[in-house]
């Protein structure tokens, strides 16, 4: 919306400049023009086209500047802003005598030209000087904070904010990640997520009500434990759903979206946003089970295919066992024969000793007792 408004303002300004620019032409030239109204329309059209191009360039520069501001350390941003302000102040102090000097009307244009050139020159100079020497000033104010100095020098990148999805809060494992120190930076909870949790907590469905209350309780405990690190973003975005609003918040803050929703993670990747899928993280941290490993597995149910039974590892991985049909509740020695990875998880395939040729050769691991109950 803001970008469109900027383009409209540039186009209107360009058209107005072209339209009114006819009056600035010398009278000798105006007398020679047979159709002054047509020239006015032509200059207005050319001015609007120039304004459109200038608006597109300005929008691109604005987006680039906003991206730099989001990723820039706060200390460096402040030092650059101070340098820019001091540069503009010096420029205007030097301009004051020039602007007060009376000049002939033929060279009156020198005053606005000098104002533009001096402000640009001194403003850029102050900005660059603050970027180079502002870090020294930061060391004077905070000489003991080595991490802040490394960030200011560009050696370290500042930790991005972590934006929590509803699924991650209900899941509950986010608290363990924060406790272990694997996640750095601010933790942001959008107001739309809190509203969704409240709607779940007020639901007539007992399962949804329990999930909502669990999420709200977890947020309350995390707020008491981490204090200011947990921030509630009250910005009201105009998206259709919670997912759209979270994507807009992630884009605006430049943070990392934490979610357990596979589809939401893929949409964020398509929009080139930083995202961390908690399900993929859990899969990556699961202990590897190699073909040939022996396990003691409890059969939980029959499989879909003939002679198959299904059990589960202690991390929830499903194991399809050949030759275990009808043996629900029994703990059987099985041998892993393979595994398959898909977007929703990992499936391990195994067989019982009775269904194969006995103990495989070359197995070096001892049987592991697995009890999913």
What does this structure look like?
The chain has 373 residues and is of the alpha/beta class. It is built from 13 helices and 11 strands. Strand 9 and strand 10 form a beta hairpin. Helix 4 packs antiparallel against helix 5. The longest helix is centred in the first third of the chain and has 36 residues. The protein is elongated. 22% of the residues are buried.
SSE map:
Elements: H1 2-20, H2 27-32, H3 36-71, H4 74-100, H5 110-141, H6 146-152, E1 162-164, H7 166-171, H8 174-180, E2 187-190, H9 191-201, H10 206-226, E3 230-233, H11 242-253, E4 256-259, H12 262-270, E5 274-277, H13 278-285, E6 294-302, E7 308-312, E8 318-322, E9 331-342, E10 345-352, E11 368-369
Parallel strand pairs: 1-2, 1-4, 2-3, 4-5, 6-11, 8-10
Antiparallel strand pairs: 6-7, 6-9, 7-8, 9-10
Beta-strand residue fraction = 15-25%
Describe the global form: elongated
Q: Regions with pLDDT < 50 over 5+ consecutive residues?
A: 357-373
Total number of helical segments? 13
Distance between the termini: 54 Å
The description of the largest β-sheet is: 5 strands, parallel
Rg over CA atoms, rounded to whole Å, is 33 Å
Which class do the helix and strand fractions yield?
alpha/beta
Secondary structure tally: strands: 11
What is the H/E order?
A: HHHHHHEHHEHHEHEHEHEEEEEE
Mean pLDDT: 77
């Amino acid at each position: 919306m803001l970008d469109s408004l900027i383009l409209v303002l540039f186009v209107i300004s360009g058209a107005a400049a072209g339209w009114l620019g006819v009056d600035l032409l010398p009278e000798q030239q105006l007398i020679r023009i047979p159709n002054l109204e047509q020239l006015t329309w032509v200059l207005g059209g050319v001015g609007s086209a120039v304004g459109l191009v200038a608006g597109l360039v300005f929008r691109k520069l604005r987006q680039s500047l906003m991206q730099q501001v989001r990723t820039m350390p706060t200390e460096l941003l402040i030092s650059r802003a101070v340098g820019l302000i001091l540069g503009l102040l010096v420029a205007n102090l030097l301009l004051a005598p020039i602007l007060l000097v009376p000049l002939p009307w033929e060279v009156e244009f020198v005053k606005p030209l000098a104002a533009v050139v001096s402000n640009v020159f001194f403003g850029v100079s102050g900005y660059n000087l603050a970027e180079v020497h502002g870090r020294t000033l930061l060391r004077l104010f905070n000489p003991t904070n080595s991490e802040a100095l490394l960030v200011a020098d560009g050696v370290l990148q500042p930790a991005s904010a972590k934006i929590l999805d509803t699924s991650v809060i209900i899941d509950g494992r986010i608290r363990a990640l924060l406790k272990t120190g694997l996640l750095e930076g601010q933790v942001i909870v959008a107001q739309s997520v809190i509203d969704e949790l409240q709607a779940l907590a007020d639901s007539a469905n007992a399962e949804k009500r329990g999930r909502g209350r669990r999420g709200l309780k977890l947020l309350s405990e995390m707020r008491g434990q981490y204090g200011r690190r947990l921030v509630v973003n009250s910005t009201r975005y105009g998206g259709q759903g919670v997912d759209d609003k979270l994507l807009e918040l992630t884009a605006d803050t430049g943070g990392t979206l934490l979610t357990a929703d596979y589809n939401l993670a893929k949409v964020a990747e398509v929009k080139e946003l930083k995202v961390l899928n908690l399900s993929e993280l859990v899969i990556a941290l699961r202990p590897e089970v190699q073909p040939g490993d022996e396990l003691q597995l409890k059969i939980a149910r029959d499989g879909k295919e003939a002679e198959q039974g299904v059990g589960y590892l202690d991390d929830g991985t499903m194991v399809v066992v050949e030759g275990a049909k009808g043996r629900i509740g029994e703990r059987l020695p099985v041998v892993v024969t393979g595994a398959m990875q898909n977007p929703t998880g990992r499936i391990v395939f195994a067989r019982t000793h009775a269904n194969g040729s006995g103990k495989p050769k070359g197995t070096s691991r001892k049987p592991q007792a697995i009890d999913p109950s």
